[in-house]
Design a protein that fits this description.
alpha+beta, single chain, 318 residues, 16 strands, 6 helices
Length: 318
Protein backbone atom coordinates (compact mmCIF):
# COMPACT_ATOMS: atom_id res chain seq x y z
CA UNK A 1 0.00 0.00 0.00
CA UNK A 2 2.76 2.46 0.94
CA UNK A 3 4.95 1.12 -1.86
CA UNK A 4 2.18 1.67 -4.39
CA UNK A 5 1.71 5.29 -3.30
CA UNK A 6 5.41 6.16 -3.20
CA UNK A 7 6.14 4.67 -6.60
CA UNK A 8 9.82 5.04 -7.54
CA UNK A 9 10.58 6.70 -4.22
CA UNK A 10 10.05 3.32 -2.53
CA UNK A 11 13.30 2.02 -4.07
CA UNK A 12 15.24 4.70 -2.17
CA UNK A 13 14.23 3.19 1.18
CA UNK A 14 16.79 1.05 2.98
CA UNK A 15 15.83 -2.16 4.74
CA UNK A 16 15.77 -0.31 8.06
CA UNK A 17 13.56 2.36 6.53
CA UNK A 18 11.04 -0.23 5.39
CA UNK A 19 11.20 -1.92 8.78
CA UNK A 20 10.50 1.42 10.47
CA UNK A 21 7.35 1.88 8.40
CA UNK A 22 6.12 -1.66 8.99
CA UNK A 23 6.82 -1.74 12.71
CA UNK A 24 6.43 1.79 14.05
CA UNK A 25 3.88 3.19 11.63
CA UNK A 26 1.82 0.15 10.71
CA UNK A 27 2.05 -2.32 13.58
CA UNK A 28 2.00 0.15 16.46
CA UNK A 29 0.17 3.15 14.97
CA UNK A 30 -2.34 2.27 12.27
CA UNK A 31 -3.45 -1.22 13.31
CA UNK A 32 -4.36 -0.34 16.93
CA UNK A 33 -6.50 2.57 15.71
CA UNK A 34 -8.29 0.90 12.84
CA UNK A 35 -11.87 -0.25 13.41
CA UNK A 36 -14.32 -1.35 10.79
CA UNK A 37 -16.99 1.11 11.88
CA UNK A 38 -14.65 4.12 11.99
CA UNK A 39 -15.81 7.36 10.44
CA UNK A 40 -15.15 7.24 6.70
CA UNK A 41 -13.58 10.69 6.95
CA UNK A 42 -10.94 9.57 9.45
CA UNK A 43 -7.35 9.70 8.15
CA UNK A 44 -4.50 7.40 9.12
CA UNK A 45 -1.15 9.15 8.86
CA UNK A 46 1.96 7.13 8.00
CA UNK A 47 5.33 8.88 8.31
CA UNK A 48 7.84 7.95 5.61
CA UNK A 49 11.62 8.16 6.28
CA UNK A 50 13.22 11.22 4.69
CA UNK A 51 15.52 9.05 2.57
CA UNK A 52 12.57 8.24 0.29
CA UNK A 53 12.26 11.91 -0.68
CA UNK A 54 15.88 12.65 -1.57
CA UNK A 55 15.86 14.93 -4.59
CA UNK A 56 12.07 15.36 -4.53
CA UNK A 57 9.39 17.26 -2.63
CA UNK A 58 7.96 16.12 0.70
CA UNK A 59 4.51 17.01 -0.64
CA UNK A 60 2.47 15.37 -3.39
CA UNK A 61 -1.19 16.18 -3.94
CA UNK A 62 -1.30 14.89 -7.52
CA UNK A 63 -3.42 11.91 -6.42
CA UNK A 64 -4.92 10.37 -3.29
CA UNK A 65 -3.84 9.53 -0.70
CA UNK A 66 -2.08 12.87 -0.39
CA UNK A 67 1.50 13.18 0.88
CA UNK A 68 2.05 16.16 3.16
CA UNK A 69 5.36 16.88 4.83
CA UNK A 70 6.65 13.39 4.15
CA UNK A 71 3.52 11.78 5.62
CA UNK A 72 0.93 9.79 3.69
CA UNK A 73 -2.67 10.54 4.71
CA UNK A 74 -4.59 7.29 4.14
CA UNK A 75 -8.38 7.24 4.26
CA UNK A 76 -10.30 4.61 6.21
CA UNK A 77 -11.28 2.94 2.92
CA UNK A 78 -7.59 2.58 1.98
CA UNK A 79 -6.83 0.70 5.19
CA UNK A 80 -9.89 -1.49 4.85
CA UNK A 81 -8.79 -2.59 1.37
CA UNK A 82 -5.46 -3.73 2.83
CA UNK A 83 -7.29 -6.06 5.22
CA UNK A 84 -9.90 -7.39 2.78
CA UNK A 85 -7.96 -10.40 1.51
CA UNK A 86 -6.41 -11.46 4.87
CA UNK A 87 -9.83 -11.15 6.52
CA UNK A 88 -11.39 -13.58 4.08
CA UNK A 89 -8.68 -16.14 4.75
CA UNK A 90 -8.79 -15.75 8.53
CA UNK A 91 -12.59 -15.88 8.68
CA UNK A 92 -12.67 -19.05 6.57
CA UNK A 93 -9.92 -20.65 8.67
CA UNK A 94 -11.54 -19.83 12.02
CA UNK A 95 -14.97 -20.87 10.76
CA UNK A 96 -13.62 -24.24 9.65
CA UNK A 97 -11.64 -24.83 12.84
CA UNK A 98 -14.58 -24.05 15.11
CA UNK A 99 -16.94 -26.30 13.15
CA UNK A 100 -14.45 -29.18 13.30
CA UNK A 101 -13.98 -28.72 17.05
CA UNK A 102 -17.70 -28.54 17.76
CA UNK A 103 -18.42 -31.58 15.59
CA UNK A 104 -15.91 -33.67 17.52
CA UNK A 105 -16.87 -32.16 20.92
CA UNK A 106 -13.21 -31.63 21.70
CA UNK A 107 -11.34 -29.28 24.01
CA UNK A 108 -8.68 -27.77 21.80
CA UNK A 109 -6.58 -24.62 21.69
CA UNK A 110 -5.77 -23.26 18.24
CA UNK A 111 -3.70 -20.17 17.50
CA UNK A 112 -3.77 -18.00 14.38
CA UNK A 113 -1.43 -16.18 15.26
CA UNK A 114 -3.05 -13.75 17.74
CA UNK A 115 -6.28 -15.71 18.04
CA UNK A 116 -6.87 -18.46 20.56
CA UNK A 117 -9.87 -20.75 20.14
CA UNK A 118 -10.77 -22.56 23.34
CA UNK A 119 -13.15 -25.53 23.20
CA UNK A 120 -14.78 -24.03 20.13
CA UNK A 121 -16.72 -21.71 22.42
CA UNK A 122 -14.59 -18.62 23.00
CA UNK A 123 -12.00 -16.71 21.03
CA UNK A 124 -9.42 -14.48 22.68
CA UNK A 125 -8.00 -11.67 20.57
CA UNK A 126 -5.13 -9.36 21.53
CA UNK A 127 -6.40 -5.94 22.61
CA UNK A 128 -4.64 -4.10 19.79
CA UNK A 129 -6.28 -6.28 17.12
CA UNK A 130 -9.67 -4.53 17.33
CA UNK A 131 -10.25 -4.74 13.58
CA UNK A 132 -9.77 -8.51 13.75
CA UNK A 133 -12.13 -8.83 16.68
CA UNK A 134 -14.86 -7.05 14.76
CA UNK A 135 -14.29 -9.13 11.66
CA UNK A 136 -14.56 -12.38 13.61
CA UNK A 137 -18.03 -11.42 14.83
CA UNK A 138 -19.19 -12.11 11.28
CA UNK A 139 -17.79 -15.67 11.22
CA UNK A 140 -20.80 -17.99 10.65
CA UNK A 141 -19.60 -20.58 13.18
CA UNK A 142 -20.06 -18.13 16.06
CA UNK A 143 -23.77 -17.78 15.33
CA UNK A 144 -24.18 -21.56 15.15
CA UNK A 145 -22.41 -22.43 18.42
CA UNK A 146 -24.64 -23.21 21.36
CA UNK A 147 -23.99 -24.91 24.68
CA UNK A 148 -27.11 -24.56 26.77
CA UNK A 149 -27.82 -20.85 26.88
CA UNK A 150 -24.23 -19.89 26.01
CA UNK A 151 -23.45 -18.59 22.54
CA UNK A 152 -20.08 -18.20 20.83
CA UNK A 153 -18.07 -15.37 22.38
CA UNK A 154 -15.07 -13.29 21.41
CA UNK A 155 -13.03 -11.95 24.31
CA UNK A 156 -10.51 -9.11 24.26
CA UNK A 157 -7.39 -9.39 26.34
CA UNK A 158 -4.84 -6.87 27.53
CA UNK A 159 -1.25 -6.72 26.27
CA UNK A 160 0.72 -8.88 26.42
CA UNK A 161 -1.90 -11.21 24.93
CA UNK A 162 -3.00 -13.99 27.26
CA UNK A 163 -2.83 -16.24 24.22
CA UNK A 164 0.97 -16.09 24.41
CA UNK A 165 1.30 -17.84 27.80
CA UNK A 166 -1.51 -20.22 26.85
CA UNK A 167 0.30 -21.37 23.73
CA UNK A 168 3.71 -21.26 25.40
CA UNK A 169 2.39 -23.44 28.21
CA UNK A 170 1.01 -25.95 25.72
CA UNK A 171 4.38 -26.15 23.99
CA UNK A 172 6.21 -26.65 27.27
CA UNK A 173 3.79 -29.41 28.18
CA UNK A 174 4.56 -31.18 24.94
CA UNK A 175 8.33 -30.95 25.26
CA UNK A 176 8.67 -31.62 28.96
CA UNK A 177 8.18 -35.30 28.22
CA UNK A 178 10.78 -36.53 30.69
CA UNK A 179 10.88 -38.18 34.12
CA UNK A 180 10.55 -35.91 37.13
CA UNK A 181 13.83 -34.27 38.03
CA UNK A 182 12.77 -31.44 40.32
CA UNK A 183 15.07 -29.15 38.31
CA UNK A 184 14.09 -25.99 36.48
CA UNK A 185 13.92 -26.29 32.71
CA UNK A 186 16.63 -24.26 30.94
CA UNK A 187 14.19 -23.02 28.29
CA UNK A 188 11.60 -22.12 30.94
CA UNK A 189 13.43 -21.07 34.11
CA UNK A 190 10.18 -20.23 35.88
CA UNK A 191 8.75 -23.70 35.38
CA UNK A 192 9.82 -26.63 37.55
CA UNK A 193 9.36 -30.12 36.18
CA UNK A 194 7.51 -32.01 38.87
CA UNK A 195 5.98 -34.81 36.83
CA UNK A 196 6.12 -36.51 33.48
CA UNK A 197 3.75 -34.82 31.04
CA UNK A 198 3.16 -35.23 27.33
CA UNK A 199 0.76 -34.39 24.55
CA UNK A 200 -1.59 -37.37 24.42
CA UNK A 201 -3.07 -36.62 21.01
CA UNK A 202 -3.35 -33.91 18.38
CA UNK A 203 -5.84 -33.07 15.64
CA UNK A 204 -4.40 -33.58 12.16
CA UNK A 205 -4.37 -30.36 10.12
CA UNK A 206 -3.44 -32.25 6.94
CA UNK A 207 -3.84 -35.71 5.49
CA UNK A 208 -0.56 -37.65 5.40
CA UNK A 209 0.05 -40.68 3.21
CA UNK A 210 2.02 -42.50 0.52
CA UNK A 211 1.48 -43.41 -3.13
CA UNK A 212 1.44 -47.10 -4.09
CA UNK A 213 0.46 -49.52 -6.85
CA UNK A 214 -2.22 -52.16 -6.36
CA UNK A 215 -4.14 -54.80 -8.33
CA UNK A 216 -6.31 -53.14 -10.96
CA UNK A 217 -10.05 -53.43 -10.35
CA UNK A 218 -12.40 -52.60 -13.23
CA UNK A 219 -14.85 -49.88 -12.24
CA UNK A 220 -12.81 -48.88 -9.18
CA UNK A 221 -9.59 -47.62 -10.75
CA UNK A 222 -9.23 -45.24 -13.68
CA UNK A 223 -8.19 -46.71 -17.05
CA UNK A 224 -5.25 -44.28 -17.34
CA UNK A 225 -3.76 -45.74 -14.13
CA UNK A 226 -3.77 -49.29 -15.52
CA UNK A 227 -0.45 -50.94 -16.48
CA UNK A 228 0.94 -54.45 -16.94
CA UNK A 229 3.33 -55.70 -14.26
CA UNK A 230 5.73 -58.05 -16.10
CA UNK A 231 7.31 -59.44 -12.95
CA UNK A 232 4.04 -60.56 -11.40
CA UNK A 233 2.07 -61.04 -14.61
CA UNK A 234 -0.94 -58.97 -13.51
CA UNK A 235 -2.64 -55.70 -14.33
CA UNK A 236 -1.91 -53.04 -11.71
CA UNK A 237 -3.20 -49.54 -10.90
CA UNK A 238 -0.45 -46.98 -10.32
CA UNK A 239 -0.42 -43.80 -8.23
CA UNK A 240 -3.04 -44.82 -5.71
CA UNK A 241 -3.01 -43.13 -2.28
CA UNK A 242 -2.93 -44.75 1.13
CA UNK A 243 -3.64 -42.19 3.88
CA UNK A 244 -2.13 -42.94 7.27
CA UNK A 245 -3.74 -39.84 8.74
CA UNK A 246 -6.74 -37.92 7.44
CA UNK A 247 -7.37 -34.24 8.05
CA UNK A 248 -9.35 -33.82 11.28
CA UNK A 249 -8.33 -37.22 12.72
CA UNK A 250 -7.56 -37.44 16.41
CA UNK A 251 -3.97 -38.70 16.25
CA UNK A 252 -2.73 -40.51 19.34
CA UNK A 253 0.97 -40.91 20.12
CA UNK A 254 0.14 -44.17 21.90
CA UNK A 255 -1.38 -45.75 18.77
CA UNK A 256 1.04 -45.45 15.83
CA UNK A 257 -0.33 -46.56 12.47
CA UNK A 258 1.50 -49.12 10.34
CA UNK A 259 0.72 -50.49 6.89
CA UNK A 260 2.40 -53.23 4.87
CA UNK A 261 3.77 -52.75 1.34
CA UNK A 262 6.25 -54.61 -0.82
CA UNK A 263 8.44 -53.85 -3.84
CA UNK A 264 9.48 -56.48 -6.37
CA UNK A 265 12.82 -56.71 -8.21
CA UNK A 266 13.67 -58.72 -11.33
CA UNK A 267 17.41 -59.17 -10.87
CA UNK A 268 20.14 -58.39 -8.36
CA UNK A 269 21.14 -55.44 -10.55
CA UNK A 270 17.78 -53.81 -9.84
CA UNK A 271 18.23 -54.10 -6.08
CA UNK A 272 20.65 -51.71 -4.38
CA UNK A 273 19.49 -52.22 -0.80
CA UNK A 274 18.53 -48.55 -0.55
CA UNK A 275 14.87 -47.60 -0.17
CA UNK A 276 13.49 -44.15 -0.99
CA UNK A 277 9.87 -43.34 -0.16
CA UNK A 278 8.06 -40.03 -0.56
CA UNK A 279 5.54 -38.87 2.04
CA UNK A 280 2.67 -36.79 0.67
CA UNK A 281 0.31 -34.29 2.26
CA UNK A 282 -3.11 -32.96 1.29
CA UNK A 283 -5.08 -30.02 2.70
CA UNK A 284 -8.45 -31.10 1.28
CA UNK A 285 -11.13 -32.18 3.77
CA UNK A 286 -11.70 -35.35 1.74
CA UNK A 287 -8.30 -36.38 0.28
CA UNK A 288 -8.42 -38.15 -3.12
CA UNK A 289 -7.81 -41.87 -3.52
CA UNK A 290 -5.20 -41.31 -6.24
CA UNK A 291 -2.23 -38.99 -6.71
CA UNK A 292 -3.46 -35.65 -8.09
CA UNK A 293 -2.19 -32.08 -8.50
CA UNK A 294 -3.77 -31.16 -5.15
CA UNK A 295 -1.40 -33.49 -3.31
CA UNK A 296 2.05 -32.18 -2.40
CA UNK A 297 5.30 -33.80 -1.31
CA UNK A 298 5.89 -33.38 2.41
CA UNK A 299 9.25 -35.12 2.77
CA UNK A 300 11.13 -38.24 1.76
CA UNK A 301 12.47 -41.13 3.79
CA UNK A 302 15.63 -42.95 2.75
CA UNK A 303 17.00 -46.04 4.44
CA UNK A 304 19.55 -48.79 3.92
CA UNK A 305 17.89 -52.22 4.29
CA UNK A 306 21.29 -53.78 4.94
CA UNK A 307 20.27 -57.11 3.38
CA UNK A 308 21.59 -58.87 0.23
CA UNK A 309 19.44 -59.62 -2.79
CA UNK A 310 19.62 -63.37 -2.09
CA UNK A 311 17.90 -62.82 1.26
CA UNK A 312 14.73 -61.47 -0.38
CA UNK A 313 11.63 -63.67 -0.66
CA UNK A 314 11.24 -65.39 -4.03
CA UNK A 315 8.51 -64.01 -6.27
CA UNK A 316 6.54 -66.45 -8.38
CA UNK A 317 5.41 -64.54 -11.48
CA UNK A 318 2.72 -65.63 -13.85
Amino acid sequence: MVESRLGRRWSKLTRNGIKEIMKNEWEYAVKPQFKLENDATKNYIVAVPAEAFEGSSLNDDSKKPFIKGGRIHFASSDIQKAFASPFRGIEALVDGQINKIVEKELTVTVRNPRITIISGRKVIVAQRELYLLEALVRVPAFTNISAGSMRGKILKCSNPPVSDPICRGAIFKGFLDAPSTGQANKEAPNINVTSKVSVVSTIARLSIGVAFNTDFVEGKHRPEDRYWNKLEGVWRARNQMEWYVRKGDNVSKAQPKTKNFYRSYGTSKDFTGLEHNIIFQCDEDDPPSRLTMGIQELCSIKCDLAIPYDALEDLEGA
